[in-house]
Amino acid sequence: MTTSTRGAHRTPAVLVLEDGRIFRGRAYGAVGATFGEAVFSTGMTGYQETLTDPSYHRQVVVMTAPHVGNTGINDQDMESKKIWVSGYVVRDPARVPSNWRSTRSLDQELAAQGVVGISGIDTRALTRHLRERGAMRVGIFSGQALPDEGTMLAEVRQAPEMSGADLSAEVATTEAYVVPAIGEKKFTVAAVDLGIKGMTPHRMAERGIEVHVLPATATVEDVYAVNPDGVFFSNGPGDPATADHPVSVMRGVLERGTPLFGICFGNQILGRALGFGTFKLKYGHRGINQPVQDRTTGKVEVTAHNHGFAVDAPLDQVSDTPYGRAEVSHVCLNDNVVEGLQLLDRPAFSVQYHPEAAAGPHDAAYLFDRFVKLMEGQRA
Question: What is the pTM of this model?
Answer without folding.
Answer: 0.95
